[in-house]
Design brief:
Blueprint (H helix, E strand, L loop, with lengths): L29 E5 L3 H13 L4 E6 L10 E4 L1 H10 L1 H8 L3 E3 L2 E5 L2 E5 L4 E5 H15 L2 E4 L6 H7 L2 E4 L6 H5 L1 H4 L1 E15 L6 E8 L2 E11 L2 E9 H6 L7 H11 L9 E2 L6 E8 L3 E2 L2 E3 L14 H18 L3 H31 L9 H9 L7 H7 L1 H11 L12 E3 L2 E3 L3 E3 L14 H12 L4 E8 L16 H17 L4 E7 L10 H4 L12 E2 L13 E2 L2 H21 L3 E6 L4 H6 L14 H4 L1 H13 L6 E6 L10 H13 L4 E5 L17 H11 L3 E3 L6 H9 L5 E4 L1 H5 L3 H8 L37
Parallel strand pairs: 1-2, 1-9, 2-8, 5-11, 9-17, 20-21, 20-29, 21-22, 22-25, 23-24, 25-26, 26-27, 27-28, 28-29
Antiparallel strand pairs: 3-7, 4-7, 5-6, 10-13, 10-14, 10-15, 11-12, 12-13, 16-17, 18-19
Helix pairs in contact: 1-4, 1-10, 2-3, 2-10, 3-4, 10-11, 13-14, 15-16, 16-18, 18-21, 22-23
Length: about 775
């Protein structure tokens, strides 16, 4: 029998038939649970406690005291749910908890401690003992060293089958055509070990070896024991010779590498093996009367301590739904509806944490305090403001080391690009308004951009301004191909410089390429015009969507013409007084279309290798840079990934950024996608930031991060962690033109990083919304 990895309790054999449709039985509910891990056992206990007449059986193929991990960490939120649902289990666990508040980060001989985090842990074996005892007390039948029947067989016999059979779930695989699992394998190897003493904090220790970087994750789970996880990238694991070592050899080698953290003491194993983490996602969690729970349904990387937590919370939700809903089908539907969004959020955080550790080598040269802050905020769940509440002393030290003046949040520190100094790190991202007539920006653009300049951002960007009539996306797009357009832009620029002194305004120049001649966004985004279409051009004759117009492949002479259109527009932009110019090489527009292999199928000097695909965008950049004033900065917006197989990816983005930097780009504005219509983006909070972070750490080039950055806390966190230099926000500025001013007010900041216009200063304090000092009742009188 194959020994499963930690948390893997696969017990079921492939099912030959489908489970029965869930029905409401006339007899007491009969429940079969496959897998005796914490999630399955806790579900059994809860279901039996809620209704003692239920017949509940748990199958576990291993012995009662078999476990493949050491310690379990649970959050206060999870513990609160356990206490409310089953005080007996909570009380038994509480007697064995080890609690601590600190996190230690040890790197290059420096140890930094952050407090106020609040952890609780206990031994995994002890947790199983508590749950075994509780199940027996309640009358749950536990069958150890016993293979379960196949899921279909159980489904025929029982009213409900709960598959808690772990990451290697045979139940999930038996019905893969329904559950539709996606399993992603990642780039690090790790091993679960234990030490015979208790760390006094959650400890992260970094070892830079001759073979590469390795990391230790350690935490206490008993008065005399700690879990120790050693992790490294696959190539480091291979180079260090771990592939040739047996179990004890690996244990001894890890103890030697991390001897300082372990105080020279040995490590111990428990059938420990090196493994690669796999993220499990299922489209559906139930099929008939069979439902997935815990690692069978989902996994989240151990670096955020979520595996047992999620399984226990699944059990709580499933038991509650079965108690609340009128029938099993409704209960399973409600369970999935309740848990999937919560799990998806946790998985996004876990994925961010996992990828941070996979790319740990990028951060080794950060200043020690910033490195520690970066590690603590890696999942985006711990933020600058959150960390300041937990440990103001630590956060203040990071801010001082970063260069924040006293009382100044990171977002309100200045930043210099060439001859332009921005007074804060907030950028109003380019947003197409589709409200121009014949390419001329009018009163709408004056009010739109002017109001956001008055709102306090350090830099306000125009929408994509098109370099020719044929380069427009829609008939409502602005341009810079006529003197009248330039004069109207000059009016906007002068308003910003006069009425919002200290705010810079930048212009983004672009050409629509194959994505042009479409309707206004609210009339049908990317849909061809019903009439009045103009011919499209692109790197290759590939339509954006099946019903889109087919563009003509640009000839060499046409490339020259378009390059001249860009330089003419840049010259007009300089005359209009713009402070910064951005070249739009993202989102599938013309220059982006040259960069992506999915949209550039040329066989001449402008297609093929990345170097050749870069050729025309770089020619345009050079031509624009030659007419753009030397002291004014130029940035380039790129799509760092196409979110599509065979398209541009993170490695390509680094090389694209390097190429533009070599030609004089002052910063890279890092967006993603919108290059092909069948993209599959992975949305989430600040989901594009890792691409900016990687470019910044790899090339040393300043970057602008964009994409679902919605709070001032996010901006402070990203800036202070060194993941970006500037943050560009779009939708938040549509919701609130004064977003930056309000961010300052909410943080109690009043300094040079943001200035309230004199007419607005009376509104610099949040208005009161109602009385909050009413006397509270002293007595409650009965009737």
């Amino acid at each position: 029998m194959t020994v499963p990895t930690k948390g893997a309790r696969g017990t079921a054999r492939p099912a030959p038939t489908s489970p029965q449709p869930p029905t409401t039985p006339s007899h007491p509910l009969r429940v079969a649970i496959i897998g005796g891990g914490p999630g399955g056992l806790y579900a059994a206990a809860l279901l039996k406690r809620l209704d003692p007449t239920r017949e509940i059986t748990v199958w576990e193929r291993n012995a009662p005291d078999d476990t493949f991990g050491f310690g379990v960490v649970l959050s206060d939120e999870t513990l609160g749910g356990i206490e409310h649902a089953d005080p007996a289990v909570y009380e038994a666990m509480q007697n064995d908890f080890v609690r601590w508040d600190d996190i230690d980060i040890v790197h290059r001989g420096a140890r930094h401690t952050s407090g106020g985090h609040g952890f609780a842990a206990l031994g995994r074996k002890r947790l199983l003992e508590i749950l075994h005892d509780r199940c027996r007390d309640l009358g749950v039948e536990l069958r150890f060293r016993t293979e379960a029947l196949d899921p279909a067989g159980l489904a025929d016999t029982y009213d409900l089958v709960i598959a808690a059979d772990g990451v290697n779930s045979a139940t999930r695989e038996a019905y893969a055509h329904v559950f539709r699992p996606h399993v992603a394998t990642h780039h690090c190897r790790y091993i679960w070990l234990a030490a015979d003493f208790a760390f006094d904090a959650f400890r992260f220790e970094i070892a830079e070896t001759e073979h590469g970087v390795m990391q230790l994750h350690g935490y206490p789970y008993a008065a005399d024991a700690s879990t120790v996880i050693v992790e490294m990238r696959e190539e480091v694991w291979q180079a260090a010779g771990f592939a040739e070592l047996d179990e004890q050899g690996s244990v001894d080698r890890c103890a030697k590498i991390f001897a300082d953290a372990l105080r020279g003491r040995p490590l111990k194993s428990n059938k420990s093996a090196w493994t690669t983490f796999r993220t499990v996602v299922n489209e559906h969690w139930s099929h008939g009367n069979v439902v997935l729970l815990g690692d069978a349904a989902h996994t989240a990387h151990f670096s955020i301590g979520s595996g047992t937590k999620l399984a226990v919370e699944d059990a709580l939700a499933l038991a509650a739904c079965l108690d609340e809903q009128p029938d099993i089908a409704s209960a399973l539907s409600a369970y999935e509806e309740e848990r999937k969004p919560v799990v998806a959020s946790t998985q996004r955080a876990a994925r961010a944490s996992l990828e941070w550790f996979e790319n740990l080598g990028l951060y080794l040269d950060q200043p020690p305090l910033q490195f520690a802050f970066n590690l603590l905020t890696r999942s985006r769940r711990v933020t600058h403001d959150n960390l300041r509440l937990r440990d103001a002393g630590f956060t203040g030290a990071v801010e001082r080391d970063f260069g924040c003046p006293t009382g100044t949040p990171p977002m309100f520190t200045p930043f210099r690009l060439r001859g332009l100094t921005l007074r804060n790190r907030v950028v109003v991202s380019p947003m197409d308004m589709y409200s121009a007539t014949d390419g001329v920006p009018g009163d709408f653009h004056l009010v739109h951009l002017g109001s956001r300049a008055l709102g306090g951002a350090g830099l306000v960007m125009t929408e994509m301004v098109c370099v020719s009539p044929e380069g427009r996306i829609t008939p409502g797009c602005t341009g810079l191909y006529t003197g009248r357009q330039a004069d109207s832009w000059k009016r906007v620029v002068q308003f910003v410089h006069t009425q919002a002194p200290g705010t810079a305004i930048g212009v983004q120049l672009g050409h629509s390429g194959r994505k042009g001649s479409t309707k206004l966004m609210w009339e049908g985004m990317d849909e061809p015009l019903d009439d009045g279409n103009w011919p499209l051009v692109a790197a290759s004759p590939i339509p954006y969507k099946p019903d889109s117009q087919i563009p003509r492949e640009l000839s060499r002479s046409q490339l020259t013409d378009i390059r001249e259109q860009f330089t003419s527009a840049a010259w007009r932009a300089a005359r209009a007084g713009f402070d910064l110019l951005e070249l739009h090489c993202a989102h599938g527009y013309l220059l982006s279309g040259f960069l992506s292999p999915l949209t550039n199928r040329r066989t001449d000097a402008y297609g093929g290798t990345l170097e050749k695909r870069l050729r025309f965008p770089l020619e345009v950049f050079d031509a624009v840079r030659n007419v753009w004033p030397e002291e004014r900065p130029m940035t380039v917006r790129i799509s760092a990934t196409d979110w599509a197989e065979g398209g541009t990816g993170a490695d390509d983005a680094v090389e694209i950024a390097r190429a533009f930097a070599a030609h004089g780009a002052d910063a890279i504005d890092v967006s993603t996608g919108q290059v092909v219509a069948d993209e599959r983006p992975e949305f989430g909070r600040s989901y594009q930031t890792p691409y900016a972070d990687r470019i910044r750490r790899t090339t040393g080039l300043p970057v602008i991060a964009v994409g679902a950055i919605s709070s001032w806390d996010d901006v402070n966190s990203l800036i202070l962690a060194g993941r970006t230099d500037l943050c560009a926000l779009a939708r938040p500025h549509l919701y609130d033109p004064n977003w930056t001013l309000h961010a300052a007010a909410e943080q109690g900041y009043d300094g040079p990083g943001v200035v309230w216009p004199d007419p607005y200063r009376a509104g610099s304090r949040r208005p009161q919304t109602g009385r909050t000092d009413a006397p509270k009742p002293r007595l409650t009188l009965g009737t």
